[in-house]
Design the sequence.
């Protein structure tokens, strides 16, 4: 579990995050949503330690990351998996070599042990026998799955996903959402997903934090969000006709069930 307490961050005179508190729950998909400029990226970078907040606490399983010594932070970072928006695969490396990279950096496993781990995570993301392919030879969805495989090869306790469905078609996006959700449950990972994809919000949003102009405007689940009376949240979530229809359907089902 990750707890964020009273986080403030500003650059110059501009306040980006203003007194944000939230909980990212273990074994669940925690989503950070909001319009561009709402503070999602800055908050995420504060949580992983890329930015130092001006005020507040960031607790990983009860331990404040901001007061950790350098060696403690290094150990913590080894427990964090990252799925980048652009995949961040090395074009000159094969799929296998890309996934081996963190194992080579952070473990002292034998080569055969590393290969075994690579094969295990590739099979888990349904890319068995893709070892020798290069990123240029595989589809966007396959690249995303390679990125997921690499992010879980060190068995992280925490997984951060930055716009995991960016650039993907709706069907492939659903596959990636389902995979992230399954891995979160299977490995009991604290997963944090930064997304604009409202289908992801409705499908895998176990816990959602909605930011608006640097403030935490709303916090709850994808079940709660349907019945939210927060006007700003509703304007953001139900902008599309599909999601408005989904809201109307769920409200009708709720009334019929009473």
Sequence:
């Amino acid at each position: 579990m990750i707890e964020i307490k009273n986080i403030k961050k500003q650059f110059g005179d501009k306040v980006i995050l203003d007194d944000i508190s939230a909980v990212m729950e273990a074994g669940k998909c925690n989503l950070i949503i909001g319009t561009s400029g709402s503070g999602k990226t800055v908050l995420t970078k504060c949580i992983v330690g890329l930015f130092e907040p001006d005020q507040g606490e960031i607790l990983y399983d009860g331990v404040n990351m901001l007061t950790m010594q350098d060696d403690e932070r290094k150990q913590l970072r080894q427990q964090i998996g990252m799925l980048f928006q652009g995949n961040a695969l090395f074009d000159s490396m094969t799929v296998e070599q890309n996934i081996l990279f963190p194992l080579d950096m952070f473990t002292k496993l034998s080569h055969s042990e590393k290969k075994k781990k690579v094969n295990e995570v590739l099979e888990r993301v349904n890319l068995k026998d893709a070892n020798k392919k290069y990123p240029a030879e595989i589809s966007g969805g396959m690249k995303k799955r390679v990125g997921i495989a690499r992010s879980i090869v060190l068995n992280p306790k925490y997984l951060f996903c930055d716009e995991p469905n960016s650039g993907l078609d709706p069907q492939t996006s659903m596959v990636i959402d389902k995979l992230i959700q399954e891995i979160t449950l299977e490995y009991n990972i604290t997963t944090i997903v930064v997304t604009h994809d409202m289908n992801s919000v409705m499908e895998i949003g176990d816990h959602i934090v909605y930011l608006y102009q640097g403030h935490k405007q709303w916090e709850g689940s994808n079940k709660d969000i349907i019945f939210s009376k927060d006007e700003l949240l509703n304007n953001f979530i139900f902008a599309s006709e599909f999601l408005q229809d989904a809201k109307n359907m769920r409200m009708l089902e709720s009334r019929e069930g009473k």
Q: What stands out?
A: The two ends are 35 Å apart (CA to CA). Residues 2-79+156-257 form a domain with the Rossmann fold fold (CATH 3.40.50.300).
